[in-house]
């Protein structure tokens, strides 16, 4: 039986505003199996990115529980969450989020170095070749096109062989041709390394390429489609 | 710390340096180190040169004065410790020639005298002397010009000193340790030490003193003094350095030293401000990398180590470049003024280098502390929510760290807690008031700036929206302008004051012993020769015999500070007593009330005669208000009651008196008069003709001494000018750094305005207006703050009268607007020369 990679149990997020408390994420419970690809879709402001930030441990839940590969994240402090991310999680962002003062190769090496891998450079060179940028390793991000920058970001995300990859609108800043290349690369690497993919997107075509699609609306989650009948989403209303 | 952390930090540092990311903070550190090193190295070198120069006024670095010959072992010990020594015995003695006699200041100099400065001689009285390295041969003597006149002798004639006859072989025009109290000094007679015994002036009851001169390294001199001090008897011995000298040279050099110190402290503050600005910018530009690293799993400690290492690398590089640059600047300045100011290039001082490195390190670390803490607090969530900044908002840490750093530096640098505290507290008060004023102005300004969106409105809108950033920026502009104003005004005031002390036309000759009958003729004769004679002061000579009916003994006098106090001292010689109803210009009553002001209720005839005494003599002779002084004037005894103590400006080169008596006490005595006049150097030859009808009048030539003094003052003024230029340059660089940093923050807005199609002219005008507004406000605030700081500095540190500077209330805002406006326009021009896509790309 496929193990569960992500499990949420009634997680919600409430923020304090000048008008008082505002619940931006209603209680959500779902599970994602290892190696699964899940798209979270929804309009702007629907809570997609908030959900992503909670799943990735970038932000803390107000209530509920999150288990990543069996580890309870709600009990962790920021340091422990960072450690977890370093060990098990990769990221791809819409705005690439490369360190401007490091070269493409060094950006790719970064997670491996943070994790203390002594073969960081070798790994980075290998993966740079895999994303087809072996000739641009010495270039700085602002010397690369958007598509190239996102390929560097993908390479960076995969260098630590993460168990989970979070992708936030990975093609949102790219033209059609580049988007297609990136999508292909992303799914190819995902498949080859059996990574669990959580993808936040507006793009229904891209979402359609995932095994499951979860729909966010006004902080609530509904499952649109699922190729895996054994999985369910339990949603507690309000 | 792992190797990965180090190599990551190093790589980031290398790339960022190459890409110009670190330029501003690096420049700030370089600037701080370079300005502190160049200023303090220059001032140390200049101080040594000036101390060296002023050492000439005591003929050595240190002088041991004694009433008795000292144990020869003391001198041997000094020589063993590597010091140079020389010796001189001095005595007040009578000389005789042609049946004339005069009381003289006899000096018997031993080999090596003078250790510092030169003896100058001439072949004709009242002519320019030339330096000579020898001393008089045995059997010969050199005497001052006025003595030729008094004794009616010529070069080659003989004079009798004690039991020995000397041949007068030269005119003595200058000895380095002449002292500066020009009026009333006895003419000097220089003989060789070998001849002293034969004169028999040393003996029971004689008034003889011994000077032992020492030169050498300051440290050796201090070591020697440490050894010597326990053996000194305060009643007999006195250890002097130039600081103890009352010529005003010590004070001028001291004040110049204070000024250099102030200038350097202000340079440190300027540097600190620029580092703070740069560190803030550095921190903000690194929010993204920190968020990325945290997202990728970097523990907080690793992020901290990476950035602390980066700061250390930047600091080390900045200090290295800054030290080299500072040294070069200083060498350039020294080379530029070589010939005008004697600054030795050979002397190397370690202290400025240590201070510069310390400054660079403390500034870089403490001023980046808060920005770094903010940086470390950046949430990884920023990768998703780009608007998230730092989580830390306590400004208290910033104020404590920055304030602490500045105070620490000031204290370490000045080693003077008073100067540091005054500047620091004034600074705090200023910053707080400026902050309040700034908020007020920004609020008011926004009201003015409302309406249709033109350049003016855009400018005000920007100022208002970024109120906090702008107030910080405004304050740093204001502080920079204020510091520059302080340095400028202090320099002007100080140089002005020095020059006022010795204005053109300062009397360089004194006339003594003018009889009452001669006075009108003399005045007429001088006027007809186009020479203006100053005021005539009546003088009677009197011997000071008792205090409160207790007889006084031995000697002390202002004219001869070499003599020692010993018990209740008298003057040992006749004092010049003058009378006056009015307080002399430049004098100030510090205790009691001026003559005649005291006893309104008594009838004049009943009350005792009043005398006003000079502060120094009161202290030396332990006299106080109410004491009864008894003088023997022409065989009559006169009792005087001390009713006031005066501070006298001895540097004024005017006739000054220890004792000023109310006129009714001296009405029965016939006075002689003294006066002074100025004769330009080119008319020196006219002296003989001028004095010829008045053979009995004694002429004292102080031209050489005035020139010595003026020379020092000129050198110090010149050095102060260069310090000013250095500080102005440092200030200008700080302003540039600030404008650059703030330009950075404006980039995004400019890009948006550009993208929305705003015309370059509108954007440029709005930025220039913004900077002009900031410049005017900063200038006005700086002018106000300047007055307050100057008042504190002048009254508390420099001991100068406070002065007001209304002109700067106009100059500062205009200059602020011009300088800041131009710098803003230049920075803006650079940004606007980029096209919109470049602008947007730079923002990533």
Highlighted features:
heterodimer; A: 238 residues; alpha/beta; Rossmann fold; 7 helices; 11 strands; 32% helix; disordered C terminus; B: 844 residues; alpha+beta; 4 domains; six-stranded mixed beta barrel; 52% helix
Structural classification of chain A: alpha/beta
The percent range for strand residues of chain B is: 15-25%
CATH superfamily of chain A: P-loop containing nucleotide triphosphate hydrolases
Strand order of the largest sheet of chain B: 2-3-9-6-8-7
Read across the widest sheet of chain A, the strand sequence of neighbours is: 6-7-8-3-9-10
Helical content of chain B stands at 40-55%
Largest sheet of chain A: 6 strands, mixed
Shape of chain A: globular
Q: What is the mean pLDDT of chain B?
A: 79
Rg over CA atoms of chain B: 34 Å
The structural domain count of chain B equals 4
CATH architecture of chain A: 3-Layer(aba) Sandwich
Number of helices of chain A: 7
Mean pLDDT of chain A, as a whole number?
A: 85
Largest sheet of chain B: 6 strands, mixed, barrel
Would you spell out the secondary-structure blueprint of this structure?
The complex is a heterodimer of chains A (238) and B (844).
Chain A lengths: L3 E14 L2 E14 L3 E6 L5 H8 L7 E6 L2 E2 L5 H11 E4 L11 H11 L5 H11 L15 H13 L5 E5 L7 H18 L2 E6 L2 H5 L3 E6 L2 E7 L7 E2 L3
Parallel strand pairs in A: 3-8, 3-9, 6-7, 7-8
Antiparallel strand pairs in A: 1-2, 1-4, 2-11, 4-5, 9-10
Helix pairs in contact in A: 3-4, 3-5, 4-5, 5-6
Chain B lengths: L2 H16 L4 H33 L6 E5 L5 H9 L3 E14 L2 E10 L9 E4 L7 E3 L7 E5 H7 L6 E4 L2 E11 L13 E5 L3 H4 L8 E8 L2 H11 L8 E5 L7 H37 L1 H9 L4 H38 L12 H27 L18 H20 L2 H32 L6 H11 L1 H35 L7 E7 L2 H11 L8 E11 L2 E2 L1 E3 L13 E2 L3 E6 L8 E5 L16 E6 H6 L7 E6 L2 E12 L11 E3 L10 E6 L9 H5 L6 E4 L1 H53 L4 H38 L9 H26 L3 H8 L1
Parallel strand pairs in B: 3-9, 6-8, 15-16, 17-22, 19-21
Antiparallel strand pairs in B: 1-10, 1-11, 2-3, 2-7, 2-10, 4-5, 4-8, 6-9, 7-8, 12-23, 12-24, 13-14, 13-17, 13-20, 13-23, 18-21, 19-22, 20-21
Helix pairs in contact in B: 1-9, 2-7, 2-9, 2-10, 2-18, 7-10, 7-11, 7-14, 7-18, 9-10, 10-11, 11-12, 12-13, 12-14, 12-19, 13-19, 14-18, 14-19, 18-20, 18-21, 19-20
